[in-house]
């Protein structure tokens, strides 16, 4: 299961690099429709905004995929639970002696 999580993370990380660089390259080399009619200032602004939006879309998709991961419900060890309940219900001798010493001092 850990391998699939790492694989999804690696793929999402690659898209977070590839998508904005491809968008910037496409705008700067007039590969995208309508980008040749924009001024250089507008090309820079539009390509930057679209690149940022593409990264946010990749992040949202990664979060969506992470939320769909199966969650195995963790079951604590029964022996550990029994020992913990026993330690809470039976105080140690030190706690009773310390409270008795406080009473004696008063």
Automatic annotation (TrEMBL):
* GO biological process terms on file: vacuolar proton-transporting V-type ATPase complex assembly
Which InterPro entries did the record assign?
Vma21
Membrane topology term reads: Multi-pass membrane protein
Q: Segment Disordered: which positions?
A: 85-106
Q: Indicate the principal place this protein occupies in or around the cell.
A: endoplasmic reticulum
Query: Where does it localize?
Result: Endoplasmic reticulum membrane; Endoplasmic reticulum-Golgi intermediate compartment membrane; Cytoplasmic vesicle, COPII-coated vesicle membrane
Q: Which GO terms describe its cellular component?
A: endoplasmic reticulum membrane; endoplasmic reticulum-Golgi intermediate compartment membrane; ER to Golgi transport vesicle membrane
Q: Where are the transmembrane segments?
A: 9-27, 42-64
Keywords, ordered alphabetically: Cytoplasmic vesicle, Endoplasmic reticulum, Membrane, Transmembrane, Transmembrane helix
Q: Which domain of life is it from?
A: Eukaryota
Family of this protein: Belongs to the VMA21 family.
Q: Which HAMAP family match?
A: VMA21
State its role.
Required for the assembly of the V0 complex of the vacuolar ATPase (V-ATPase) in the endoplasmic reticulum.
Under what name is this protein listed? Vacuolar ATPase assembly integral membrane protein VMA21 homolog
Lineage at the top is: Eukaryota, Viridiplantae, Streptophyta, Embryophyta, Tracheophyta
């Amino acid at each position: 299961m850990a391998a699939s999580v790492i694989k999804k993370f690696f793929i999402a990380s690659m898209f977070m690099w590839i998508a904005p660089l491809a968008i910037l390259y496409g705008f700067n080399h007039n590969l995208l429709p309508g980008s040749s009619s924009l001024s250089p200032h507008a090309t820079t602004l539009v390509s930057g905004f679209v690149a940022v939006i593409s990264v946010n879309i990749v992040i949202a998709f990664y979060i969506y995929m992470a939320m769909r991961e199966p969650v195995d419900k963790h079951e604590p060890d029964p022996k550990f639970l029994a020992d913990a309940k026993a330690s809470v219900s039976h105080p140690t001798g030190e706690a009773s002696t310390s409270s008795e010493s406080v009473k004696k001092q008063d």
